[in-house]
Amino acid sequence: MNGRDYIISGSSDESILRICCAQTGRRLRDVHLQDRTLGSAMYVQSLRSDPFRHFHMAVLAAYVRPSSRWGIVKVNLLASSHHAKQDSESQDFCPRFGWGG
């Protein structure tokens, strides 16, 4: 995310991105992926940090059903959930942030 301080992990089995401290392993924050229009969870297929802007990333997300839509979600982890953008205009994405446990 900024080169050395954080680890971002996600899974195609879950609709959560986990942000952890790279030095201690402590979970700092959870980002829940959910489509606001359908109220359905979105699952991580791939995630990449932006090499030029700290705390920005893109997530290739999909629904659990094979016939469902997918899209690239741009996330600014420092902004509120209203600042997330998605390249697929047909979807309305809303990340929900929570503290790690």
How would you describe what is shown here?
The chain is mostly beta strands and 101 residues long. The protein has one domain. The protein contains no helices and 8 strands. The strands form 2 sheets. The chain has a 4-stranded antiparallel β-sheet, with no helix packed on it. A hairpin with a 5-residue loop joins strand 2 and strand 3. The C terminus is likely disordered.
What's the helix and strand layout?
Blueprint: E1 6-10, E2 16-21, E3 27-35, E4 43-49, E5 56-62, E6 70-76, E7 85-86, E8 93-99
Antiparallel strand pairs: 1-2, 2-3, 3-8, 4-5, 5-6, 6-7
Label the structural class: mainly beta
Averaged pLDDT? 72
Assign an overall shape: globular
Overall helicity: under 10%
Instruction: Say how many strands there are.
Output: 8
Our measurement of the CA-to-CA distance between the termini, rounded to an integer number of angstroms, reads 20 Å
Q: What is the spatial order of strands in the main beta sheet?
A: 1-2-3-8
Count up the helices: 0
- Low-confidence stretches are 81-94, 96-101
Please trace the helix and strand order, writing H or E for each element: EEEEEEEE
Task: Please compute the radius of gyration using only Cα atoms.
Answer: 13 Å
Beta-sheet strand percentage? over 45%
Q: Biggest β-sheet: count, sense, barrel?
A: 4 strands, antiparallel
Number of domains: 1
